[in-house]
Design goal:
- By secondary structure, the chain is α+β, with helices and mostly antiparallel strands.
- The strands form 2 sheets. Strands 3, 4, 5, 6, 7, 8, 9, 10, 11 and 12 form a 10-stranded mixed β-sheet that branches.
- It is globular.
- It is built from 5 helices and 12 strands.
- The chain has 2 domains: 73 residues, Arc Repressor Mutant, subunit A (Orthogonal Bundle), CATH 1.10.10; 146 residues, Umud Fragment, subunit A (Ribbon), CATH 2.10.109.10.
């Protein structure tokens, strides 16, 4: 995939899609793309999207309004184990406290994610992956489901989180939904008096919850990738 070989129009479309995803957590429609890059014809936008698919920059689900998926998103995602281990000599242990759904939310035993853990439930994490965070602020969860697949988080992966109860728009967070008795891993967007919990999968819909019914438990700092 060589970005420089794309036409000027295709570069503008790709750049807009990346920017839109970064700001909103979901892909734009064909009409929104056309308006952003000054193309009046949706068929012309569609043609260029197909060219980006042919060249390996996008995947499309034509039957879905926002069915676009970026292939080369690494620069915008949390660090992965496969590319982030710069120094394996500085390891410390983080408690693996349970599982979390990156799909439709599922019930868990309690909102503390099982923070009372045994010494055996620990994983080694390179310091380089998570920066200067204090180790007692960190915990790990194993992901089930594929709603965050476009954020490079797949079923079976482990996410390293920093414990915090606030989030900024665009943060990938673990949240407890007390009214539903459920937890989930999604991107967080505060919109007035409600929160949009946005999956990173164009085939799945966001979850809308009143802001006072969302309890942020932690923010994702890094991903430990499982290779299948």
């Amino acid at each position: 995939m060589e970005y420089n070989k794309l036409s000027t129009r295709q570069k503008k479309i790709l750049d807009f899609i990346e920017s839109f995803l970064r700001d909103n957590g979901f892909p734009p429609t064909i009409r929104e793309i056309g308006e952003a890059v000054n193309i009046a014809s949706t068929s012309v936008v569609n043609y260029n999207l197909n060219k980006l698919v042919e060249r390996g920059f996008l995947e499309r689900a034509p039957e879905v309004s926002r069915g676009l998926r970026l292939i080369n998103q690494e620069d915008h995602q949390p660090k992965e184990m496969g590319v982030a281990i710069a120094d394996m000599t500085h390891l410390f242990q983080v408690p693996l406290v349970g599982k979390i759904a990156a799909s439709a939310p599922v019930p868990l035993p309690g909102e503390d994610f099982g923070y009372y853990y045994d010494s055996d439930d620990m994983i080694d994490v390179p310091q380089a992956m998570i920066g200067p965070s204090h180790r007692d602020e960190l915990f790990a969860l194993r992901v089930t489901g594929d709603s965050m697949i476009d954020a490079m988080v797949g079923d079976g992966d482990i996410v390293i989180l920093k414990r915090q109860n606030v989030a900024k728009n665009g943060d990938m967070v673990a949240v407890w939904l007390p009214e539903r008795g459920e937890t989930t891993l999604k991107k967080y967007y505060l919109e007035g008096k409600r929160v949009r919990l946005q999956p990173a999968n164009p085939m799945m819909d966001p979850i809308y919850v009143n802001a006072d019914q969302v309890s942020v438990q932690g923010r994702v700092l890094a991903i430990l990738r499982t290779l299948h």
